Amino acid sequence: MTAGSRGDVAPFTGVGHALVRDGHEVTLVTHGRFEALVAGSGVAFHPLPVDPRAELESSRGRGLHRSSSGLGKLARVVRLARSLVGEMADDVVAAARESDALLLSASLSPLGHVVADALDLPALDLPLQPLAATRHFAPPMLGGGSLGPHLNLLAGHVVDRSVDHVFAPALPAVRAQLGVPRPPRRRRRPQRPLLHGFSPLVVPRPSDWRPGLDVTGYWWPYDTAGELPDELRRFLEAGPPPVFIGLGSATVPDPAALSAEIIRALRLAGLRGIVQRGWAGLSAEADDILTIDDVPHSLLFPRMAAVVHHCGAGTTAAGIRAGVPSVPVPIQFDEGFWAARLVSLGVAPQSLTLRKLTAERLAAALTRATTEPEFTERARKLGTQVRAEDGLAKVLEAVNGLS
């Protein structure tokens, strides 16, 4: 069960497919617009009613761009999410009634555990970001960086309580529907196991995390080998490796202006480019620039000289897996955290904020990423190491141990 953007969904198609191969019957419970992601995987699908793209493009969703700080964006997304959880609750309960166990992403974990407890089902948390408070870094949802050990820890607890605030309006009705009483106000939280779907080479497991919080390695989306579209293949064959520029499921205030800056940046850097339209609605056409729709990152990224992206957890993982340098352009939520990781790992020259993105800054970063060999060398080495990890092994072991 997961909710959010494509990056919050795609890794679980790989988890589901691996479980199917292991003999399980699996249903992915998420927004209806993502049903095509499980095609051919053997994973069944149960749609949730909310359309995340429509929400981001609504007046409430566009309001997220009016906050420049991590705390401001967090406050706005909490208000947005509080209004949507109730819309999904009935379908979460319905899917759970047909299940023997629940696997929960962070975006639905509090609701899922209430349902699992009421129906006496085992449940396992599978977050894609570091969730538990730690002294080592600030909560990813605040946008990355460190506030110092004590403030990092305090901020982690604040974000944790903010998540409770998101789900609070929906849970009484769910408990009433399932006939379970409200828990005591001061009940201590259960110490549940969490398996985190990212590489310890990218985010080492914090030393102050309690036992049961494990980092497994990445979970790659399910996709068939497939082939590139003919137009894209011809473009790649017509010249040197281009750079990829795409913002995935992120939206932007002015797609036309940003597209113009991207074109100018590619011209200044003397690079060919592939621009992914995405939810941002980017578009740039010329002899040396091609605009595309969805193409599996696993097919496209290894053929790039560098990738410019918003640093969602899934796209960050795909760039690392491909072994090519990145130029991060984080927009909101945990994207600043992943951008900072790429810079600290030496596979990205710098992080560029969307608010201050200009053609000159993007061109300078692209020039460094594509001409300074240390970025390519470090990216290639990290990609080799990450591809050798088996992030699904612990998930399969944990699921087979559920009872």
TrEMBL record:
<dbReference type="GO" id="GO:0008194">
    <property type="term" value="F:UDP-glycosyltransferase activity"/>
</dbReference>
<dbReference type="InterPro" id="IPR002213">
    <property type="entry name" value="UDP_glucos_trans"/>
</dbReference>
<dbReference type="Pfam" id="PF06722">
    <property type="entry name" value="EryCIII-like_C"/>
</dbReference>
<dbReference type="InterPro" id="IPR004276">
    <property type="entry name" value="GlycoTrans_28_N"/>
</dbReference>
<keyword id="KW-0808">Transferase</keyword>
<dbReference type="Pfam" id="PF03033">
    <property type="entry name" value="Glyco_transf_28"/>
</dbReference>
<dbReference type="GO" id="GO:0005975">
    <property type="term" value="P:carbohydrate metabolic process"/>
</dbReference>
<dbReference type="InterPro" id="IPR050426">
    <property type="entry name" value="Glycosyltransferase_28"/>
</dbReference>
<protein>
    <submittedName>
        <fullName>Glycosyltransferase family 1 protein</fullName>
    </submittedName>
</protein>
<dbReference type="InterPro" id="IPR010610">
    <property type="entry name" value="EryCIII-like_C"/>
</dbReference>
<dbReference type="GO" id="GO:0033072">
    <property type="term" value="P:vancomycin biosynthetic process"/>
</dbReference>
<feature type="domain" description="Erythromycin biosynthesis protein CIII-like C-terminal">
    <location>
        <begin position="282"/>
        <end position="390"/>
    </location>
</feature>
<feature type="domain" description="Glycosyltransferase family 28 N-terminal">
    <location>
        <begin position="1"/>
        <end position="106"/>
    </location>
</feature>
<dbReference type="GO" id="GO:0016758">
    <property type="term" value="F:hexosyltransferase activity"/>
</dbReference>
